[in-house]
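Notebook, p. 212. Picked up where the previous page left off. The plan for this session was modest: take the two constructs that came back from the sequencing core last week, fold each one, and keep the raw output in the notebook itself so nobody has to go hunting through shared drives later. Recording the first one now, exactly as returned: residue sequence, then the C-alpha coordinate string.
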Amino acid sequence: MAGRLSKSLVATIGVLLAVLLLAGAQSTVQAQVVFHSPQSANLPTAETLSKGQWLFEISHRFFPPVADGADVLWGFDGPVINRLGLAIAASDRVMFGVLRSNLSDNLELNAKARVFEGGSDATPVMIGLMGGIAWNTEAPTGAGADENESQQYAQVIFNTLLGDRFALGVVPTVLRNPTIEEAESQTVFVLGLHGQLYVSDGFSFLGEWIVSENRGVEQAYDSGSFGIELETRGHFFKVVLSNQQWMNPTQVLGGTGYEFTPGEWRVGFNIQRKLIF
Protein backbone atom coordinates (compact mmCIF):
# COMPACT_ATOMS: atom_id res chain seq x y z
CA MET A 1 0.00 0.00 0.00
CA ALA A 2 2.79 2.43 0.97
CA GLY A 3 4.55 1.66 -2.30
CA ARG A 4 1.45 2.48 -4.33
CA LEU A 5 0.95 5.74 -2.45
CA SER A 6 4.58 6.68 -2.96
CA LYS A 7 4.34 6.00 -6.71
CA SER A 8 1.14 8.03 -6.84
CA LEU A 9 2.82 11.00 -5.17
CA VAL A 10 5.83 10.75 -7.49
CA ALA A 11 3.44 10.77 -10.46
CA THR A 12 1.64 13.83 -9.05
CA ILE A 13 4.89 15.74 -8.64
CA GLY A 14 5.93 14.65 -12.15
CA VAL A 15 2.72 16.07 -13.62
CA LEU A 16 3.26 19.27 -11.61
CA LEU A 17 6.77 19.72 -12.99
CA ALA A 18 5.50 19.15 -16.54
CA VAL A 19 2.86 21.85 -16.07
CA LEU A 20 5.50 24.18 -14.64
CA LEU A 21 7.58 23.76 -17.80
CA LEU A 22 4.55 24.36 -20.02
CA ALA A 23 3.56 27.42 -18.04
CA GLY A 24 7.07 28.80 -18.28
CA ALA A 25 7.00 28.41 -22.06
CA GLN A 26 3.79 30.45 -22.46
CA SER A 27 3.91 34.04 -23.56
CA THR A 28 3.41 36.70 -20.92
CA VAL A 29 -0.25 37.54 -20.19
CA GLN A 30 -1.12 40.42 -17.90
CA ALA A 31 -3.59 38.96 -15.41
CA GLN A 32 -5.94 40.91 -13.19
CA VAL A 33 -4.67 40.87 -9.63
CA VAL A 34 -6.66 38.79 -7.12
CA PHE A 35 -4.33 38.52 -4.11
CA HIS A 36 -1.52 41.08 -3.99
CA SER A 37 0.97 38.80 -2.22
CA PRO A 38 2.24 35.35 -3.29
CA GLN A 39 1.29 34.04 0.18
CA SER A 40 -1.37 34.37 2.85
CA ALA A 41 -0.36 33.71 6.47
CA ASN A 42 0.76 30.18 5.53
CA LEU A 43 -1.09 29.14 2.37
CA PRO A 44 0.09 30.08 -1.12
CA THR A 45 -1.84 32.26 -3.54
CA ALA A 46 -1.73 31.87 -7.33
CA GLU A 47 0.07 35.20 -7.62
CA THR A 48 3.60 35.13 -9.06
CA LEU A 49 6.32 37.73 -9.56
CA SER A 50 7.54 39.32 -12.77
CA LYS A 51 10.35 37.51 -14.57
CA GLY A 52 13.71 38.08 -12.91
CA GLN A 53 12.34 39.35 -9.60
CA TRP A 54 13.40 37.78 -6.30
CA LEU A 55 11.35 37.42 -3.12
CA PHE A 56 13.13 37.40 0.24
CA GLU A 57 11.26 36.36 3.40
CA ILE A 58 11.85 36.34 7.13
CA SER A 59 9.01 35.13 9.38
CA HIS A 60 8.59 34.39 13.08
CA ARG A 61 6.09 32.54 15.25
CA PHE A 62 6.44 33.20 18.98
CA PHE A 63 6.15 30.42 21.57
CA PRO A 64 4.35 32.12 24.51
CA PRO A 65 0.57 32.58 24.10
CA VAL A 66 -0.72 36.16 24.14
CA ALA A 67 -3.03 35.20 27.02
CA ASP A 68 -0.05 34.84 29.39
CA GLY A 69 -0.02 38.61 29.55
CA ALA A 70 2.66 40.99 30.79
CA ASP A 71 4.89 38.20 32.11
CA VAL A 72 5.71 37.27 28.49
CA LEU A 73 5.11 40.76 27.01
CA TRP A 74 1.82 39.47 25.57
CA GLY A 75 3.58 36.80 23.54
CA PHE A 76 6.59 38.78 22.28
CA ASP A 77 9.19 37.52 24.77
CA GLY A 78 10.02 34.49 22.64
CA PRO A 79 11.66 32.16 21.92
CA VAL A 80 10.54 31.91 18.30
CA ILE A 81 10.37 29.56 15.37
CA ASN A 82 12.16 31.33 12.54
CA ARG A 83 11.85 30.92 8.77
CA LEU A 84 14.00 32.29 5.98
CA GLY A 85 12.98 32.07 2.34
CA LEU A 86 14.22 33.07 -1.09
CA ALA A 87 12.41 32.65 -4.42
CA ILE A 88 13.08 33.70 -8.00
CA ALA A 89 10.65 34.19 -10.88
CA ALA A 90 11.95 32.16 -13.82
CA SER A 91 9.16 33.70 -15.91
CA ASP A 92 6.08 35.82 -15.28
CA ARG A 93 4.27 32.58 -14.44
CA VAL A 94 6.82 30.35 -12.69
CA MET A 95 8.69 30.69 -9.38
CA PHE A 96 11.30 28.46 -7.73
CA GLY A 97 12.10 28.80 -4.04
CA VAL A 98 13.94 27.55 -1.01
CA LEU A 99 12.71 27.74 2.61
CA ARG A 100 14.42 26.91 5.88
CA SER A 101 12.80 26.68 9.32
CA ASN A 102 14.81 26.19 12.50
CA LEU A 103 12.19 23.64 13.61
CA SER A 104 13.92 20.32 12.86
CA ASP A 105 16.10 22.31 10.42
CA ASN A 106 13.37 21.78 7.84
CA LEU A 107 14.83 22.65 4.43
CA GLU A 108 12.45 22.85 1.45
CA LEU A 109 12.81 23.24 -2.30
CA ASN A 110 9.60 24.26 -4.09
CA ALA A 111 8.08 25.44 -7.36
CA LYS A 112 4.90 27.36 -8.17
CA ALA A 113 3.16 28.17 -11.46
CA ARG A 114 0.23 30.39 -12.38
CA VAL A 115 -1.46 28.26 -15.05
CA PHE A 116 -4.84 29.89 -15.71
CA GLU A 117 -6.62 33.25 -15.65
CA GLY A 118 -10.27 33.61 -16.52
CA GLY A 119 -13.66 34.59 -15.20
CA SER A 120 -15.06 38.06 -15.74
CA ASP A 121 -13.82 41.55 -14.95
CA ALA A 122 -16.14 41.57 -11.94
CA THR A 123 -15.13 38.09 -10.74
CA PRO A 124 -11.68 37.14 -12.04
CA VAL A 125 -10.40 33.60 -11.46
CA MET A 126 -6.78 32.51 -11.14
CA ILE A 127 -5.46 28.93 -10.80
CA GLY A 128 -1.98 27.86 -9.79
CA LEU A 129 -0.02 24.74 -8.93
CA MET A 130 2.62 24.34 -6.26
CA GLY A 131 4.75 21.49 -4.99
CA GLY A 132 7.77 20.94 -2.79
CA ILE A 133 10.07 18.49 -1.08
CA ALA A 134 11.57 19.00 2.38
CA TRP A 135 14.24 17.35 4.49
CA ASN A 136 14.40 17.48 8.31
CA THR A 137 18.14 17.54 8.95
CA GLU A 138 17.84 17.75 12.75
CA ALA A 139 14.64 15.83 13.37
CA PRO A 140 13.53 14.76 16.87
CA THR A 141 14.17 11.20 17.99
CA GLY A 142 11.77 8.62 16.58
CA ALA A 143 11.63 5.57 14.37
CA GLY A 144 10.81 7.62 11.30
CA ALA A 145 12.87 10.66 12.15
CA ASP A 146 15.98 8.57 12.77
CA GLU A 147 15.90 7.65 9.10
CA ASN A 148 15.74 11.36 8.25
CA GLU A 149 12.75 10.85 6.01
CA SER A 150 11.79 13.54 3.53
CA GLN A 151 8.33 15.07 3.12
CA GLN A 152 6.54 16.13 -0.06
CA TYR A 153 3.40 18.03 -1.00
CA ALA A 154 1.45 19.02 -4.12
CA GLN A 155 -1.23 21.73 -4.24
CA VAL A 156 -3.84 23.17 -6.59
CA ILE A 157 -4.56 26.84 -5.87
CA PHE A 158 -7.96 28.37 -6.75
CA ASN A 159 -8.29 32.15 -6.31
CA THR A 160 -11.14 34.52 -7.11
CA LEU A 161 -12.09 38.11 -6.36
CA LEU A 162 -15.60 38.78 -5.05
CA GLY A 163 -16.55 42.38 -5.64
CA ASP A 164 -13.65 44.81 -5.77
CA ARG A 165 -12.06 44.03 -2.42
CA PHE A 166 -12.55 40.48 -1.12
CA ALA A 167 -10.16 37.79 -2.40
CA LEU A 168 -10.93 34.13 -1.71
CA GLY A 169 -8.60 31.14 -1.97
CA VAL A 170 -9.11 27.36 -1.83
CA VAL A 171 -6.01 25.13 -1.69
CA PRO A 172 -6.56 21.34 -1.83
CA THR A 173 -3.30 19.59 -0.94
CA VAL A 174 -1.77 16.11 -1.03
CA LEU A 175 0.82 15.76 1.76
CA ARG A 176 3.27 12.88 2.08
CA ASN A 177 4.65 11.92 5.51
CA PRO A 178 2.92 14.48 7.78
CA THR A 179 4.38 12.96 10.98
CA ILE A 180 8.12 12.33 10.71
CA GLU A 181 8.33 10.63 14.11
CA GLU A 182 6.36 7.66 12.77
CA ALA A 183 8.27 4.87 11.05
CA GLU A 184 5.59 4.36 8.39
CA SER A 185 4.88 7.27 6.06
CA GLN A 186 1.34 8.24 5.10
CA THR A 187 -0.18 10.18 2.23
CA VAL A 188 -3.01 12.47 3.39
CA PHE A 189 -5.40 15.07 1.96
CA VAL A 190 -5.50 18.56 3.47
CA LEU A 191 -7.80 21.47 2.55
CA GLY A 192 -6.73 25.09 2.96
CA LEU A 193 -9.19 28.01 2.89
CA HIS A 194 -8.26 31.69 3.11
CA GLY A 195 -9.62 35.14 2.42
CA GLN A 196 -8.40 38.73 2.37
CA LEU A 197 -10.38 41.98 2.59
CA TYR A 198 -8.54 44.90 0.97
CA VAL A 199 -9.52 48.10 2.77
CA SER A 200 -7.09 50.08 0.64
CA ASP A 201 -4.17 49.43 -1.69
CA GLY A 202 -1.82 49.18 1.28
CA PHE A 203 -3.95 47.71 4.09
CA SER A 204 -6.01 44.53 4.38
CA PHE A 205 -7.41 41.97 6.81
CA LEU A 206 -6.64 38.30 6.24
CA GLY A 207 -7.72 34.95 7.63
CA GLU A 208 -7.09 31.29 6.86
CA TRP A 209 -8.09 27.82 8.02
CA ILE A 210 -6.31 24.53 7.24
CA VAL A 211 -8.50 21.45 7.64
CA SER A 212 -6.45 18.41 8.65
CA GLU A 213 -6.93 15.10 10.42
CA ASN A 214 -6.16 14.44 14.11
CA ARG A 215 -2.79 12.68 14.16
CA GLY A 216 -1.88 12.72 17.83
CA VAL A 217 -0.97 15.30 20.45
CA GLU A 218 1.15 17.60 18.27
CA GLN A 219 -1.25 17.49 15.29
CA ALA A 220 -4.63 17.18 16.95
CA TYR A 221 -6.28 20.37 15.66
CA ASP A 222 -6.84 22.40 12.50
CA SER A 223 -4.61 25.45 12.04
CA GLY A 224 -6.26 28.86 12.03
CA SER A 225 -4.70 32.31 11.55
CA PHE A 226 -5.99 35.86 11.21
CA GLY A 227 -4.42 39.29 11.09
CA ILE A 228 -3.50 42.25 8.93
CA GLU A 229 -1.25 42.91 5.94
CA LEU A 230 0.58 46.15 5.21
CA GLU A 231 1.87 46.58 1.67
CA THR A 232 4.28 49.31 0.69
CA ARG A 233 7.16 49.81 -1.79
CA GLY A 234 7.66 46.14 -2.59
CA HIS A 235 7.15 44.90 0.99
CA PHE A 236 4.41 42.64 2.34
CA PHE A 237 4.30 42.83 6.14
CA LYS A 238 1.80 40.54 7.90
CA VAL A 239 1.03 40.41 11.63
CA VAL A 240 -1.08 37.43 12.69
CA LEU A 241 -2.55 35.60 15.65
CA SER A 242 -2.60 31.82 15.26
CA ASN A 243 -2.88 28.53 17.10
CA GLN A 244 -0.05 27.26 14.84
CA GLN A 245 3.62 27.86 15.68
CA TRP A 246 5.05 25.95 12.71
CA MET A 247 5.52 27.55 9.29
CA ASN A 248 7.11 25.46 6.54
CA PRO A 249 4.38 23.81 4.42
CA THR A 250 5.19 20.15 5.24
CA GLN A 251 5.01 21.09 8.93
CA VAL A 252 2.04 23.47 9.10
CA LEU A 253 -0.21 21.41 6.78
CA GLY A 254 -0.23 18.44 9.17
CA GLY A 255 -2.04 20.24 11.99
CA THR A 256 -1.23 21.81 15.36
CA GLY A 257 -1.20 20.80 19.01
CA TYR A 258 -3.23 23.83 20.14
CA GLU A 259 -6.96 24.50 19.96
CA PHE A 260 -8.15 27.61 18.16
CA THR A 261 -9.12 29.49 21.32
CA PRO A 262 -7.90 32.91 22.59
CA GLY A 263 -5.92 31.19 25.33
CA GLU A 264 -3.78 29.41 22.72
CA TRP A 265 -3.24 32.21 20.20
CA ARG A 266 0.38 33.09 19.43
CA VAL A 267 1.76 36.19 17.72
CA GLY A 268 3.51 35.86 14.39
CA PHE A 269 4.73 37.98 11.53
CA ASN A 270 5.78 37.51 7.90
CA ILE A 271 8.00 40.00 6.11
CA GLN A 272 8.49 39.57 2.35
CA ARG A 273 10.48 41.90 0.14
CA LYS A 274 10.58 41.98 -3.67
CA LEU A 275 14.11 42.39 -4.99
CA ILE A 276 15.01 43.58 -8.48
CA PHE A 277 18.62 43.36 -9.68
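Okay, moving on. Second construct, recorded in the same format:
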Amino acid sequence: MTSAAMNIRFVTIFLNGFLMIAMPVVLAIILTRKFKLGWRLFWIGAATFVLSQVGHIPFNALVNPVFNQFGFIALHPTIQLLIRAVFLGLSAGVFEEFSRYAMYRWWAKDARSWGRGLLAGTGHGGIEAIIVGALALYGFIQIAILSSVDIAQAVPAAQVETVRNQVAAALSMPVYMTLLGAVERLFAIPLHIACSLLVMQAFTRRRFGWVGLAVLLHALADGTAVVALGMGLSYLAIEGMIGLFAIASVVIIFVLRQPGPQPDLVPAPVPVTEFTPRPPEETDENLEKTRYQ
Protein backbone atom coordinates (compact mmCIF):
# COMPACT_ATOMS: atom_id res chain seq x y z
CA MET A 1 0.00 0.00 0.00
CA THR A 2 1.32 3.45 -0.91
CA SER A 3 1.86 6.04 1.77
CA ALA A 4 -0.82 8.25 0.16
CA ALA A 5 -3.42 5.49 0.43
CA MET A 6 -2.40 4.84 4.02
CA ASN A 7 -2.68 8.53 4.86
CA ILE A 8 -6.19 8.64 3.37
CA ARG A 9 -7.23 5.76 5.59
CA PHE A 10 -5.75 7.48 8.63
CA VAL A 11 -7.89 10.52 7.82
CA THR A 12 -11.10 8.53 7.26
CA ILE A 13 -10.61 6.37 10.35
CA PHE A 14 -10.19 9.56 12.37
CA LEU A 15 -13.24 11.13 10.69
CA ASN A 16 -15.29 8.07 11.51
CA GLY A 17 -14.83 8.59 15.25
CA PHE A 18 -14.95 12.39 15.06
CA LEU A 19 -18.24 12.46 13.13
CA MET A 20 -19.90 10.07 15.56
CA ILE A 21 -19.18 12.56 18.33
CA ALA A 22 -19.84 15.72 16.31
CA MET A 23 -23.21 14.77 14.78
CA PRO A 24 -25.27 14.60 17.99
CA VAL A 25 -23.50 17.64 19.45
CA VAL A 26 -24.26 19.76 16.37
CA LEU A 27 -27.86 18.53 16.30
CA ALA A 28 -28.28 19.38 20.00
CA ILE A 29 -26.89 22.88 19.41
CA ILE A 30 -29.38 23.42 16.58
CA LEU A 31 -32.33 22.18 18.67
CA THR A 32 -31.43 24.18 21.78
CA ARG A 33 -31.20 27.35 19.72
CA LYS A 34 -34.29 26.71 17.61
CA PHE A 35 -36.55 25.90 20.55
CA LYS A 36 -34.76 28.20 23.04
CA LEU A 37 -33.98 25.31 25.40
CA GLY A 38 -31.02 24.58 27.62
CA TRP A 39 -29.00 21.36 27.59
CA ARG A 40 -30.82 19.81 30.55
CA LEU A 41 -33.07 17.50 28.48
CA PHE A 42 -30.14 16.39 26.32
CA TRP A 43 -28.23 15.24 29.40
CA ILE A 44 -31.33 13.66 30.91
CA GLY A 45 -31.79 11.65 27.70
CA ALA A 46 -28.12 10.70 27.75
CA ALA A 47 -28.27 9.55 31.37
CA THR A 48 -31.43 7.56 30.60
CA PHE A 49 -29.60 5.60 27.89
CA VAL A 50 -26.69 4.84 30.22
CA LEU A 51 -29.04 3.69 32.99
CA SER A 52 -30.96 1.48 30.56
CA GLN A 53 -27.73 -0.34 29.70
CA VAL A 54 -27.04 -0.99 33.38
CA GLY A 55 -29.94 -3.44 33.20
CA HIS A 56 -29.82 -4.37 29.52
CA ILE A 57 -26.22 -5.59 29.27
CA PRO A 58 -26.27 -7.84 32.39
CA PHE A 59 -29.65 -9.24 31.34
CA ASN A 60 -28.31 -10.28 27.93
CA ALA A 61 -25.19 -11.74 29.54
CA LEU A 62 -27.37 -13.74 31.93
CA VAL A 63 -29.72 -15.11 29.28
CA ASN A 64 -27.24 -15.70 26.42
CA PRO A 65 -25.87 -18.97 27.90
CA VAL A 66 -29.36 -20.44 27.42
CA PHE A 67 -28.76 -20.27 23.67
CA ASN A 68 -25.85 -22.68 24.08
CA GLN A 69 -27.97 -25.40 25.66
CA PHE A 70 -28.44 -28.66 23.79
CA GLY A 71 -32.14 -28.12 23.10
CA PHE A 72 -31.54 -24.81 21.40
CA ILE A 73 -28.52 -26.01 19.44
CA ALA A 74 -30.61 -28.89 18.08
CA LEU A 75 -32.95 -26.44 16.36
CA HIS A 76 -32.57 -25.54 12.70
CA PRO A 77 -30.00 -22.73 12.25
CA THR A 78 -32.60 -20.44 10.69
CA ILE A 79 -34.91 -20.91 13.67
CA GLN A 80 -31.98 -20.28 16.04
CA LEU A 81 -31.21 -17.04 14.22
CA LEU A 82 -34.82 -15.86 14.34
CA ILE A 83 -35.12 -16.62 18.05
CA ARG A 84 -31.88 -14.72 18.77
CA ALA A 85 -33.09 -11.79 16.68
CA VAL A 86 -36.44 -11.64 18.50
CA PHE A 87 -34.78 -11.92 21.90
CA LEU A 88 -32.07 -9.33 21.26
CA GLY A 89 -34.50 -6.95 19.56
CA LEU A 90 -37.08 -7.15 22.35
CA SER A 91 -34.51 -6.90 25.13
CA ALA A 92 -33.13 -3.69 23.62
CA GLY A 93 -36.60 -2.31 22.97
CA VAL A 94 -38.02 -3.12 26.40
CA PHE A 95 -35.08 -1.85 28.43
CA GLU A 96 -34.58 1.36 26.46
CA GLU A 97 -38.21 2.32 25.87
CA PHE A 98 -39.36 1.58 29.42
CA SER A 99 -36.38 3.60 30.64
CA ARG A 100 -37.63 6.42 28.43
CA TYR A 101 -41.10 6.04 29.91
CA ALA A 102 -39.63 6.33 33.42
CA MET A 103 -37.67 9.39 32.29
CA TYR A 104 -40.80 11.20 31.10
CA ARG A 105 -42.79 10.22 34.17
CA TRP A 106 -40.37 11.06 36.94
CA TRP A 107 -37.39 12.97 35.56
CA ALA A 108 -38.46 15.06 32.58
CA LYS A 109 -42.02 15.96 33.53
CA ASP A 110 -41.75 19.18 31.55
CA ALA A 111 -40.90 17.37 28.29
CA ARG A 112 -44.31 17.28 26.64
CA SER A 113 -43.71 19.25 23.44
CA TRP A 114 -42.28 18.19 20.09
CA GLY A 115 -39.10 20.22 20.50
CA ARG A 116 -38.42 18.90 23.98
CA GLY A 117 -39.02 15.34 22.83
CA LEU A 118 -36.56 15.87 19.98
CA LEU A 119 -33.89 17.10 22.38
CA ALA A 120 -34.40 14.24 24.85
CA GLY A 121 -34.21 11.71 22.01
CA THR A 122 -31.06 13.37 20.69
CA GLY A 123 -29.48 12.95 24.11
CA HIS A 124 -30.52 9.29 24.29
CA GLY A 125 -29.16 8.35 20.86
CA GLY A 126 -26.43 10.97 20.93
CA ILE A 127 -24.65 9.66 23.99
CA GLU A 128 -24.52 6.21 22.38
CA ALA A 129 -22.90 7.76 19.31
CA ILE A 130 -20.48 9.74 21.48
CA ILE A 131 -19.42 6.64 23.43
CA VAL A 132 -18.92 4.59 20.26
CA GLY A 133 -17.11 7.52 18.65
CA ALA A 134 -14.77 7.87 21.62
CA LEU A 135 -13.95 4.15 21.38
CA ALA A 136 -13.35 4.57 17.64
CA LEU A 137 -10.94 7.45 18.27
CA TYR A 138 -9.15 5.36 20.88
CA GLY A 139 -8.76 2.64 18.26
CA PHE A 140 -7.46 5.23 15.80
CA ILE A 141 -4.81 6.35 18.30
CA GLN A 142 -3.72 2.75 18.82
CA ILE A 143 -3.45 2.14 15.07
CA ALA A 144 -1.51 5.38 14.58
CA ILE A 145 0.96 4.45 17.32
CA LEU A 146 1.40 0.81 16.33
CA SER A 147 1.89 1.66 12.68
CA SER A 148 4.78 3.96 13.54
CA VAL A 149 6.72 1.63 15.88
CA ASP A 150 8.16 -1.85 15.85
CA ILE A 151 5.20 -3.94 16.98
CA ALA A 152 7.53 -6.68 18.24
CA GLN A 153 8.92 -4.21 20.74
CA ALA A 154 5.54 -2.74 21.73
CA VAL A 155 3.43 -5.82 22.57
CA PRO A 156 4.06 -9.24 24.15
CA ALA A 157 5.58 -11.81 21.80
CA ALA A 158 2.46 -13.99 21.86
CA GLN A 159 0.36 -11.11 20.50
CA VAL A 160 2.73 -9.73 17.88
CA GLU A 161 1.27 -11.58 14.90
CA THR A 162 -2.33 -10.89 15.95
CA VAL A 163 -1.74 -7.19 16.44
CA ARG A 164 0.23 -6.91 13.20
CA ASN A 165 -2.66 -8.52 11.28
CA GLN A 166 -5.20 -6.25 12.95
CA VAL A 167 -3.28 -3.10 12.05
CA ALA A 168 -2.77 -4.31 8.47
CA ALA A 169 -6.48 -5.16 8.14
CA ALA A 170 -7.53 -1.73 9.43
CA LEU A 171 -5.25 0.10 7.01
CA SER A 172 -6.20 -2.05 4.01
CA MET A 173 -9.98 -1.70 4.31
CA PRO A 174 -11.80 0.06 1.48
CA VAL A 175 -12.18 3.74 2.31
CA TYR A 176 -15.97 3.55 2.51
CA MET A 177 -15.71 0.79 5.11
CA THR A 178 -13.77 3.03 7.45
CA LEU A 179 -16.74 5.44 7.55
CA LEU A 180 -19.55 2.94 8.08
CA GLY A 181 -19.58 3.51 11.83
CA ALA A 182 -20.48 7.18 11.34
CA VAL A 183 -23.11 6.24 8.74
CA GLU A 184 -24.69 3.78 11.17
CA ARG A 185 -24.88 6.42 13.92
CA LEU A 186 -26.39 8.84 11.39
CA PHE A 187 -29.14 6.27 10.82
CA ALA A 188 -29.53 5.28 14.49
CA ILE A 189 -30.06 8.78 15.92
CA PRO A 190 -33.38 9.37 14.06
CA LEU A 191 -34.60 6.00 15.35
CA HIS A 192 -33.89 7.09 18.93
CA ILE A 193 -35.63 10.42 18.37
CA ALA A 194 -38.69 8.72 16.84
CA CYS A 195 -38.91 6.30 19.77
CA SER A 196 -38.56 9.21 22.18
CA LEU A 197 -41.51 10.99 20.57
CA LEU A 198 -43.58 7.78 20.50
CA VAL A 199 -43.08 7.23 24.22
CA MET A 200 -43.91 10.88 24.91
CA GLN A 201 -47.33 10.31 23.31
CA ALA A 202 -48.17 8.03 26.24
CA PHE A 203 -48.29 11.21 28.32
CA THR A 204 -49.59 13.79 25.85
CA ARG A 205 -52.33 11.45 24.51
CA ARG A 206 -52.75 9.40 27.69
CA ARG A 207 -52.45 6.02 25.95
CA PHE A 208 -49.82 3.58 27.20
CA GLY A 209 -49.99 1.71 23.88
CA TRP A 210 -47.61 4.27 22.40
CA VAL A 211 -44.84 2.75 24.52
CA GLY A 212 -45.58 -0.61 22.90
CA LEU A 213 -45.22 0.98 19.45
CA ALA A 214 -41.80 2.34 20.45
CA VAL A 215 -40.72 -1.10 21.72
CA LEU A 216 -41.91 -2.69 18.46
CA LEU A 217 -40.07 -0.18 16.25
CA HIS A 218 -36.86 -0.58 18.27
CA ALA A 219 -37.13 -4.38 18.29
CA LEU A 220 -37.75 -4.54 14.54
CA ALA A 221 -34.71 -2.37 13.78
CA ASP A 222 -32.34 -4.29 16.07
CA GLY A 223 -33.78 -7.69 15.16
CA THR A 224 -33.43 -6.99 11.44
CA ALA A 225 -29.75 -6.13 11.93
CA VAL A 226 -29.20 -9.39 13.85
CA VAL A 227 -30.85 -11.44 11.08
CA ALA A 228 -28.85 -9.64 8.39
CA LEU A 229 -25.58 -10.28 10.21
CA GLY A 230 -26.50 -13.92 10.80
CA MET A 231 -27.27 -14.38 7.10
CA GLY A 232 -23.83 -13.07 6.22
CA LEU A 233 -25.06 -10.08 4.23
CA SER A 234 -22.54 -7.43 3.29
CA TYR A 235 -22.05 -4.45 5.56
CA LEU A 236 -23.41 -2.17 2.86
CA ALA A 237 -26.61 -4.24 2.65
CA ILE A 238 -26.99 -4.15 6.42
CA GLU A 239 -26.49 -0.39 6.54
CA GLY A 240 -29.02 -0.07 3.72
CA MET A 241 -31.60 -1.88 5.86
CA ILE A 242 -30.84 0.35 8.82
CA GLY A 243 -31.16 3.32 6.48
CA LEU A 244 -34.73 2.26 5.65
CA PHE A 245 -35.58 2.33 9.34
CA ALA A 246 -33.98 5.78 9.54
CA ILE A 247 -36.24 7.03 6.73
CA ALA A 248 -39.29 5.55 8.48
CA SER A 249 -38.16 7.21 11.71
CA VAL A 250 -37.91 10.63 10.05
CA VAL A 251 -41.46 10.17 8.73
CA ILE A 252 -42.67 9.30 12.25
CA ILE A 253 -40.87 12.34 13.67
CA PHE A 254 -42.71 14.74 11.38
CA VAL A 255 -46.05 12.94 11.62
CA LEU A 256 -45.90 13.46 15.39
CA ARG A 257 -44.99 17.09 15.03
CA GLN A 258 -47.26 19.30 17.09
CA PRO A 259 -47.24 23.07 17.45
CA GLY A 260 -45.70 24.31 20.65
CA PRO A 261 -47.72 26.18 23.23
CA GLN A 262 -48.89 29.51 21.91
CA PRO A 263 -48.75 32.66 24.04
CA ASP A 264 -52.08 33.73 25.48
CA LEU A 265 -53.86 36.11 23.16
CA VAL A 266 -54.57 39.36 25.02
CA PRO A 267 -56.95 41.74 23.23
CA ALA A 268 -55.38 45.01 22.27
CA PRO A 269 -56.44 47.84 24.60
CA VAL A 270 -59.11 50.11 23.22
CA PRO A 271 -57.81 53.68 23.09
CA VAL A 272 -59.67 55.91 25.51
CA THR A 273 -60.33 59.44 24.37
CA GLU A 274 -60.12 61.93 27.20
CA PHE A 275 -63.38 63.82 27.61
CA THR A 276 -63.15 67.50 28.32
CA PRO A 277 -66.49 69.14 29.14
CA ARG A 278 -67.30 72.14 27.00
CA PRO A 279 -68.87 75.22 28.60
CA PRO A 280 -72.38 75.99 27.36
CA GLU A 281 -72.64 78.44 24.57
CA GLU A 282 -73.41 81.94 25.81
CA THR A 283 -76.56 82.91 23.97
CA ASP A 284 -79.33 85.31 25.02
CA GLU A 285 -81.65 82.34 25.52
CA ASN A 286 -79.17 80.46 27.77
CA LEU A 287 -78.42 83.55 29.79
CA GLU A 288 -82.11 84.12 30.27
CA LYS A 289 -82.56 80.55 31.61
CA THR A 290 -79.74 80.86 34.16
CA ARG A 291 -80.65 84.32 35.42
CA TYR A 292 -81.42 84.47 39.13
CA GLN A 293 -85.02 85.30 39.73
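Notes on construct two before I forget. Residues 3-261 form one domain.
Flagging for discussion at group meeting.
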